[in-house]
Design goal:
63% of the residues lie in helices and 6% in strands. It is mainly alpha-helical. The protein has 3 domains: 203 residues, Orthogonal Bundle (Clc chloride channel), CATH 1.10.3080; 206 residues, Clc chloride channel; 131 residues, CBS-domain, CATH 3.10.580.10. The strands form 3 sheets. The chain has a 3-stranded mixed sheet with strand order 3-4-5. A 3-stranded mixed sheet has the order 6-7-8. It has a two-stranded antiparallel ribbon with strand order 1-2. The longest helix is centred in the first third of the chain and has 40 residues. The protein is elongated and about 95 Å long.
Length: 561
Amino acid sequence: MKDILKTNLALIITALLTGVIVSIVAQLFIISAKEIFYYLYSNPLGIKFLEYEINFLPLVACTTAATLIALLVKYNNIERWHGPADSIYAANQKEGALNVKTGMLSTLVSFLSISGGASVGIYGPLVHFGATLGVLLRRLAFMPRIPHDIIIGSGVAAAISAGFGSPIAGIIFAHEVVLRHFSLKAITSIALCSITASFTASQMNLVSPIFRFEEIKFNFTDALPGLIIIGPASALIALVFMYLLLNMPKISKQIIPKPHFSPFFPAFLCGIIGMFIPEVLGLGIKTITMVITEANLLSFLILILFAKLLLTSICIGFGLFGGVFSPSLFLGAIVGAIIFHVPFLGIDESVLSIFAVAGMAAVASSVIGAPISAVILVLELTGSYKYAIASIIPVCLSSLITLIFFGSSFFDKQLLARGINMSLGRENIIMSQVQIQHYASQDYLVFNKNAEIKFILDSFKQKQMTEGYFIGNENEFLGKIRLIDILDKKDKISFKYKEKKFIKLKEEHSLIDAIRILSDFVGENVPIISDKNILIGVVSEGDVLKLYNQFQKEIRSIEKS
């Protein structure tokens, strides 16, 4: 009872601390990045060429940011920056494996990228910062008992709550995207952290709401055809966006082998495109507001749609690190505005904001894999049930189409590219990381290939075993011998070994691999062989089953606690 009270007290303290600190950092991060960006780009550095004013400031700002990032990469030996996918993976491990140093540096790099005008998002890095901070606080001496997944989820919820001013969306996002399970203890801690972050943000009052909406009147029946079209259109854009995001890092490595040089390419591209289409630089909040509130030319909307798609993918793929959530909102707003221009729909101009917001929710839900969070976020951002209800149909259609043609969210695909399949479920993910060699038994018999049958039989009798293993002169593994193989040869002096096919495990095999391989096994033990063909131990089918049940029990107890 005393231990339970200590754990819960530590949980409450950690949730409160995480909520306050994440909220403060998130507020300062957002306001500083925005102000630096707006200051730089409100004082253009340009020259007049013929009739055109060419602004070189985007090129200067992005190149400066790229230089600082390149130095951080080079002198910290960073292979890749960390983001929400790493938080998701850590939360679904037995013990969280977040690298605090890389997590903090990733937050810094995203700040530099956004401030310099790179076409990246701000909220993904804040989400990972929240998770990283939670892990860091957990490592304090008085907080080791706290489940790592709960504290990671709490940090994520705090970041969403503070960044968007959406505490409920933060709670739902933490469970829907990160934890992927619900428990009373998790909800309590995460909710406390999210509410604390929201309260802290409201007291600081540094960041105003992203969007301001006026209540509008519209006929849902008239808007329904457009909302239905927005769903597939959003899915198409989300699919293209995710495909580009996943493949750009591969292209980057082929073109620029040294990672500290790669940020200069997107910096140069941002500078050139920013001279002519400044609307696609940075977070794009002003552009989104403009699209939501004003009817723009269809050609202009199509132009910034494709420019944003390409530029954001290149920025993230080539090392100007940032999130994908803000760009998803940008792309979604453009999709909704484009659908608004479809002639045969005949929608009143007052519904433009409905279509734009519905598109934002639809694209974002497909990219991050969070349809419920997207709808709740719309509700909290707009303060209107009309916007939230109108978003449900496009969100559902877009998410369904994305699931069919893509299979999962962008974060899950990122992890899959690293060999981590989130669709396996939490217990299988954990067991896929457990190497079976660590559970190998050393209680087994080995024989020289020229051993006499009498010696083998006596060894079996003495050890009460029915199986043994042949090894060569260099201790290399040769094969397996069973009692049944020599019972009819007990009158002979020696046994002529013949190599046979049999089931064996390799040292790199996981517990999940062992379960799959042993599904057709009949016998006493299975040998585990090193990559140099050395016998390092044995494991029985019963041992594997026991381990499986043990992990299942542990994971279920965590989720139910």
